Amino acid sequence: MDAPQPHDQAPDPNTTALAGITHLLFFAQTIGLIVAIVLWATRGRESRYLAFQCAQAVVLQAMFFAITILFSIAMTAAVFVLVVASGGFAADGDDIASWVFGAWLGVILGGVGLLLMVFAAGCILAIWLAVRCFQGQDPRLPWLGALAERATGYRPQHA
């Protein structure tokens, strides 16, 4: 790849629309991540702007995908521990089993609630990035954009 440049010429409307759509693919989760990677690999050579936006979308989507997996593992482990604990208490006939069931329900509802809040934050970021791309601007997220810069050698105009 060429030496990093401050920015290419202004991207055409088709390129900015494709960059915006790439960010909106956040809503498609795994399929969106795959499509963003394919767009980055195939169309990224045509425009460093598009390559950067695709890379930033991939980093954002991969981060939220990893968070979802980690939340799922943590919730599964917590539920497993509580189910094992409630089975032991139920065998003794104690009233503690109902407390453990309540804790189990709290883990499920609390975990799902936290996961929904994290997903909502990702949706807001993806929409913000997409709108800025559709407007022909060059959005960059602070930490994730730095990773995309390193991957593409492109530095957004407003960075």
Structural class per helix/strand content? mainly alpha
Order of helices and strands: HHHHH
* Largest sheet geometry: none
Radius of gyration: 22 Å
Annotation keywords:
159 residues, mainly alpha, 5 helices, disordered N terminus
Topology:
Layout lengths: L12 H12 L5 H14 L4 H45 L3 H39 L7 H11 L7
Helix pairs in contact: 1-3, 1-4, 2-3, 3-4, 3-5
How would you describe the overall organization of this protein?
The structure is a single chain. With 159 residues, the protein is an all-alpha fold. It contains five helices and no strands. The chain is elongated. Helix 2 runs antiparallel to helix 3 and helix 3 crosses helix 5. The chain has one domain.
Question: Briefly, what is this?
Answer:
This protein is mainly α. Helix content is 76%, strand content 0%.
